[in-house]
TrEMBL record:
GO terms for molecular function: glucuronosyltransferase activity. InterPro entries: UDP-glycosyltransferase, UDP_glucos_trans. PANTHER family: EG:EG0003.4 PROTEIN-RELATED, GLUCURONOSYLTRANSFERASE. Belongs to the UDP-glycosyltransferase family. This is glucuronosyltransferase.
Length: 359
């Protein structure tokens, strides 16, 4: 089976998820090609036993990352109901439309892909351009991926109800027990994010009108509704309860390292000394590669370090992307520019207590 995966270089985590899907398919004997529209040139290409086509789509270096991860930054109010976030999402939308236009008009690329006669096309939930590309090259079997939990537009598009009364939107800071005001917030967040998604898809649909792939007035939504399956990077018993379908497959844990990775002798001794300095174990704190700890507002950093100091029997190992901090650091806090998470989880038998926080 020949599979084409369209994977915009949005972030390392999305690339990593799609790369793992590709590797799994290759291990089963399938031929996989990944098309990487280069929306962010700072995101590296994956390594694997499959073909990678990285294509320039006309965005300036760093343009997407500067638009997406700043003004406001990750430590500010990130709700889509925040007018600044709403405007930011519209700016990001315009960049994906621009990238889609470049792909849709890349006749040499589309012709070469059409000649390869792919059996299946795969794309992620945040960008509908792939549906138009698949139409252009004659791919009729489509699998819709999500590197996160299920995005409301996916089950709704294939006819599965997404009840907002008890299922929180992916962008809403809510649980499954909601009062009236929480439910109202959930509806508003879903309305705003759905409107932005629909607006982006409509703009991309117009691109394919002009290239002749879609009939005038036709929406890419019609192609999305014909998706054969939705594959979600979560597990039902760890996620919020919601209606499902035999068309939805859950593959949470696919990206987890199966082989144990160990530290070298020098590093192991360093981390052993840190662990031994704690009487009740240690906590790893990392907010990911986007929400850098060093960019956290100073007042927030001060409160964070103060909270850590209230638990002197626990060592807090904090990923901090600078040589040192301008604030006083408690004795039980260890700053490090990098945390070997997989190695620590698999290689330190001395560990008593292990917790981890993510952004």
């Amino acid at each position: 089976m020949k599979v084409l995966m369209i994977v915009p270089t949005l972030s390392y985590s999305h690339i990593s998820f799609n790369a793992k899907v590709a590797e799994t398919l290759v291990s089963k004997g399938h031929e996989v090609v990944t098309l990487l529209p280069d929306v962010d040139d700072r995101v590296p290409s994956p390594n694997g036993n499959y073909e990678i086509i990285r294509r320039d789509v006309g965005l300036a270096s760093g343009e997407l990352s500067k638009t997406l991860w700043t003004n406001p930054d990750p430590y500010e109010d990130s709700s889509p109901l925040n007018p600044r976030i709403f405007l930011k999402l519209l700016r990001v939308s315009s960049l994906f439309v621009k990238a889609c236009k470049a792909l849709a008009n890349d006749r040499l690329l589309l012709e070469s892909l059409r000649e390869r006669q792919f059996d299946v096309g795969m794309l992620e939930q945040y960008d509908s351009c792939g549906f138009g590309i698949f139409r252009a090259i004659g791919v009729n079997n489509i699998v819709w991926l999500s590197a996160t939990g299920a995005y409301a537009e996916q089950p709704q598009t294939i006819g599965v109800n997404y009840p907002l009364s008890y299922v929180p939107n992916l962008f809403a800071p809510l649980g499954d027990e909601m009062g009236f005001l929480d439910s109202l917030q959930n509806v508003l967040v879903s309305t705003v994010t759905g409107a932005i998604y629909s607006y982006t898809r409509a703009q991309q649909s117009q691109i394919f009108w002009k290239t002749g792939v879609l009939a005038f007035g036709e929406d890419l939504l019609a192609t999305a509704r014909k998706s054969d399956a939705v594959v979600v990077n979560t597990l039902p018993f760890l996620d919020f309860a919601m209606p499902t379908s035999q068309q939805i497959a859950y593959i949470g844990g696919l990206t987890v390292q199966k082989q144990e990775r160990s530290l070298n002798t020098v590093d192991q001794e360093f981390w052993r000394q840190i662990a031994d300095s704690s009487t009740k174990g240690f906590v790893l704190v990392t907010f990911g590669s986007i929400a850098r700890t060093v960019d956290m507002p100073l007042d927030m950093q001060r409160k964070f370090f103060t909270a850590c100091s209230r638990f002197p029997e626990i060592t807090f190992i904090v990923k901090y992307e600078a040589a040192n901090s301008t604030l006083p650091i408690p004795l039980n806090v260890q700053l490090t520019p990098w945390i070997p998470q997989a190695e620590l989880m698999g290689g330190l038998s001395i560990m008593q207590t292990f917790l981890q926080f993510y952004w």
